[in-house]
Design goal:
This protein is an alpha/beta fold and 268 residues long. The protein is 39% helix and 16% strand.
Length: 268
């Protein structure tokens, strides 16, 4: 596979793109200029820490700072909605001490970020199950959502105890054999069953850090036509330049959505 040549900073970002991503001009109906929905699978924090002889918790804490960097950079890069995969439902299988540390980091991050988000016009929300979270974390989630509800510059969504397959299954059960079984109705149910409140635009760009190339049960319905960008950069090292490089790669792609471009029809 040919690696795309992107603008590089002092610490080059090596991006690997999905096999089916067509090259060419920017995508459908003004994709080059419109606000986009981007999501990040924030992977590699534990390996980042291990490579430095640090406990995994140090990697997770460094990862929280990476979140602050991308939230600050996202609006100026044309990102209107940013969804971050923080903790999957499968992550409960990790050692209980690591899970406890992660939950503490989440709570501290939410409580310490509210004032900054309000000032920056960020509306924060958490999607995923809440019945398995500690009450203090649920309280921090609800407080952050209430305090930032007027934010209009960026919609930030954190996925905690989230499973796309479980959400799809729950929405399908809720929909049943209803005559209203449309994609739009299903999308609304999918949002409701995981506390996302309301559906957001379909995902445009999915970034995964840490060198792995898989979706890991993340936003499977919403990723139907997402452009995929994979990077070897470990999450704690990810910064605004890396996010910009991924957005530039996204903007360079021709998104067909199953259609044939008019220029190709004319050529035929």
């Amino acid at each position: 596979m040919v690696m795309p040549q992107l603008p590089q900073g002092p610490d080059p970002l090596s991006l690997r793109v999905s096999l089916d991503a067509p090259p060419g001009a920017a995508g459908r109906d003004g994709d080059a200029g419109r606000s986009i929905h981007a999501a990040i699978i924030m992977d590699g924090s534990g390996r980042w820490a291990a490579a430095r002889g640090l406990p995994r918790s140090a990697g997770h804490r460094a990862g929280a700072q990476a979140v602050r960097r991308v939230v600050e950079a996202a609006p100026r890069l044309g990102i209107g909605t940013l969804t971050l995969h923080a903790f999957s439902s499968d992550n409960w299988q990790r050692p209980s001490c690591e899970v406890g540390e992660l939950m503490g980091i989440f709570e501290g991050f939410l409580r310490s970020s509210v004032a900054e988000w309000v000032e920056a016009g960020v509306r924060a929300g958490v999607m995923g199950r809440r019945d398995r979270l500690e009450p203090s974390l649920v309280s921090a989630i609800e407080a952050a959502e209430a305090a930032t509800r007027e934010g209009r510059r960026l919609h930030l969504r954190l996925a905690i105890d989230y499973s796309a397959r479980d959400a799809i299954l729950d929405a399908a059960r809720a929909l049943g054999n209803s005559p209203e079984a449309t994609p739009a109705k299903f999308a609304r149910l999918l949002a409701e069953v995981r506390h996302a409140r309301a559906p957001v635009p379909d995902l445009d760009l999915l970034i995964r850090t840490g060198g792995e190339q898989r979706l890991s049960d993340f936003m499977l319905w919403e990723c139907a036509y997402a452009e995929l960008v994979f990077t070897d950069r470990m999450w704690p090292d990810f910064d605004a330049a890396d996010l910009e490089a991924a957005v530039l790669e996204f903007r360079s792609r021709h998104r067909r959505f199953g259609r044939v471009p008019e220029t190709e029809l004319i050529a035929d």
